[in-house]
């Protein structure tokens, strides 16, 4: 039963997902940020993930997040090594915008037995990388090219194919370190065509940018790097 999916992604209310990178969020940062997340009515869940997990202790990291914040913790894994039974669910990401077979099925096969053993709720999510004006970490690590930001019809086709394949959500991503967020015309085109919860992340650094993507059709906006740099930003998001 997709209980986290129903409560976070299908409630019909727009909101925020806050992405925490275990490699870039130390205890001091978490102590400043997590109480703010817990108090925010806009934050629907916490995402935990990174491009390359450099430090051990993912279990401890997720436990610390859950001890300080009662929001659901959803894994946003870059690979099978980023799984832990301490989380509530994971985005079972299929990078449909790329043609790297490991990110289309390879990592998923490796992860499936662990997901079952851990009892994690797996939310099948179409992950679509959109050009952001910078060469991002996800582009480098995934060996994939983003879809040009001026080609909304190509993004829509990928999202629509994902819907027909049975995905539960669509995630439009500019990438960590994105210079520009996903264009509003791309967000609007996907939302008008594909009847799935729409997540948009990458390059969102202000309340104005968050509101813009939500008004364009995103159901959930993801903020990560901006809060790493300034946890006080949470007060105005």
Ordered list of secondary-structure elements with their pairings:
Blueprint: H1 3-9, E1 15-20, H2 27-39, E2 43-48, H3 58-68, E3 73-75, E4 89-94, H4 101-118, E5 121-129, H5 137-142, H6 152-164, E6 169-173, H7 184-193, E7 198-201, H8 207-216, E8 220-223, H9 225-229
Parallel strand pairs: 1-2, 1-8, 2-3, 3-4, 4-5, 5-6, 6-7, 7-8
Helix pairs in contact: 6-7
Q: How would you describe this structure in keywords?
A:
237 residues; alpha/beta; eight-stranded parallel beta barrel; TIM Barrel; 18% strand
Brief summary of the model shown:
This protein is an alpha/beta fold and 237 residues long. It has nine helices and eight strands.
Q: Can you describe this structure?
A:
Strand 7, helix 8 and strand 8 form a beta-alpha-beta unit. Helix 6 packs parallel to helix 7. The protein has nine helices and eight strands. An eight-stranded parallel beta barrel has the order 1-2-3-4-5-6-7-8, surrounded by six helices. The longest helix has 18 residues. The protein has 237 residues and is α/β, with parallel strands linked by helices. The mean pLDDT is 94. It is 39% helix and 18% strand.
Kindly report the name of the CATH homologous superfamily: FMN-linked oxidoreductases
Question: What radius of gyration results from the CA coordinates?
Answer: 16 Å
The CATH class name reads: Alpha Beta
Tell how many strands the DSSP assignment holds: 8
Structural class: alpha/beta
Number of discrete domains: 1
**Uncertain regions: pLDDT < 50 for 5+ in a row?**
none
**What share of residues is helical?**
25-40%
Distance between the ends: 31 Å
Total number of helical segments?
A: 9
